[in-house]
Design goal:
Shape: elongated
Structural class: mainly alpha
């Protein structure tokens, strides 16, 4: 036998021995895993998958996934819990990547069913991790792991609508409106039963300055969920922003019927009547809002502003009257309106002592009603804000 043939034979023997050794390491890893000796199992399998002889071996990668998943799921009551948890900082990620490699190299689908089952567990763990990150308000990290859950379920032939919803919702919280929009649209396409997505998607379109799509989205939501309160209010806000007070009032009356003890709705109704110049109806609804919430600043201030503005309007018309008797009649009217405004604006200032609009309104009111001491006090407060 020539030296060349001997060298080839020796190389072949060495290669076979190397493969055999690595398969032995793979088997050892499997046995250590079954005995619960995760540190030894990890050492054997890490060496196995990094060796050229078994780097493309589906079974080795499958075992690696199982070992790292076991490290992740070690029972806190296990006496070796701390030791096993210290074996890797991110065993979930390692297990996931190991199973992906197992799928890649498992051309004969020998482990397909087992991998699918374990991938389901990995998906659940990514979901649980994402929930914890969401609670900790680390939204960007939570999105990544909700996406991992979605991807894993897609790989095993499932559509995890809850995980997709969480990707959309948490992306919105993270400020990634583009990703949020894509996932809300996906949910609508697969008819996910959640009215909230229409209101959220509508608001995202609105932020994109696509008011047509924003309105179409909320109207589609209203058709599918006519009794949903949030969508009703979202649509109402659209009407208000467009000055469509008639449709806004129609919606707000529905809202009152659905939630008669909600002060915010009565305030909104009062505001629309206010904008329409219907003072009595505006005041009635503002007062109802205050009745339900005694310290509700906005309707209290608005009643004051409503009567202050009415007084100014009467005053400006009266200022053109030359007849003293007729002027006296009108003066009584504008003074009466300003006196109605006064206690509401003073109450508003009690609730928000630094509110600039309230301070300015009271300054003008005290001047018109000839109340010098109170005017002096208001001027001092305004001066202190400038410093």
């Amino acid at each position: 036998m020539t030296m060349k043939k001997i060298a080839i034979l020796l190389a072949l023997v060495m290669a076979i021995s190397l493969v055999s050794a690595q398969k032995t390491a793979r088997t050892s890893a499997f046995n250590y895993l079954n005995k619960g000796q995760l540190d030894k199992a990890k050492k054997e399998i890490d060496a196995c998958v990094t060796n050229e002889a078994t780097a493309n071996d589906a079974r080795a990668w499958f075992y690696k996934g199982n070992i790292y998943l076991a490290i992740l799921l070690t029972d806190p009551k296990d006496e070796n819990y701390a030791k096993y948890k210290a074996l890797d900082t991110n065993p979930l990620k390692v297990a996931y990547e190991a199973y992906l490699n197992a799928i890649k190299f498992d051309t004969g689908k020998e482990y397909a069913e087992d991998i699918q089952y374990r991938m389901g567990i990995v998906g659940e763990q990514f979901y649980n991790l994402a929930v914890e990150q969401y609670k900790a308000k680390t939204y960007a990290e939570a999105v990544v792991n909700f996406e991992n859950t979605v991807k894993i379920n897609e790989n095993i032939g499932k559509v995890d609508t809850l995980a997709i919803y969480n990707v959309a919702f948490v992306s919105e919280l993270a400020g990634d409106l583009a990703k949020s929009k894509v996932n809300y649209e996906k949910l609508i396409k697969i008819d996910y039963k959640q009215p909230y997505i229409y209101a959220s998607l509508s608001n995202i379109y609105k932020a994109d300055k696509d008011t047509l799509k924003a309105m179409q989205c909320v109207q589609e939501g209203r058709k599918r969920y006519p009794d949903d309160f949030n969508l009703l209010i979202t649509e109402t806000n659209f009407y208000l922003s467009r000055g469509d007070n008639a449709n806004a009032q129609k919606n707000l009356q529905q809202a009152i019927n659905k939630d008669p003890n909600n002060p915010t709705i009565y305030f909104a109704v009062g505001t629309t009547y206010d904008q329409m110049g219907r003072i009595d109806e505006a005041e009635t609804n503002y007062k109802k809002a205050i009745e339900l919430k005694a310290d509700y600043f906005d309707p209290i201030y608005n009643i004051g502003a409503l009567y202050y503005n009415l007084g100014v309007k009467i005053f400006e018309a009266a200022d053109k009257i030359s007849d003293e008797k007729l002027y006296a009649v009108e003066k009584e009217k504008f003074d009466g309106a300003w006196k109605k405004a006064l206690p509401n604006l003073e109450r508003a200032l009690e609730l928000q002592p630094s509110d600039f609009n309230t301070l300015i309104s009271l300054k003008q009111l005290y001047a018109r009603l000839n109340m010098p001491e109170k005017l002096k006090s208001i001027n001092e407060k305004l001066d202190s804000q400038k410093k």
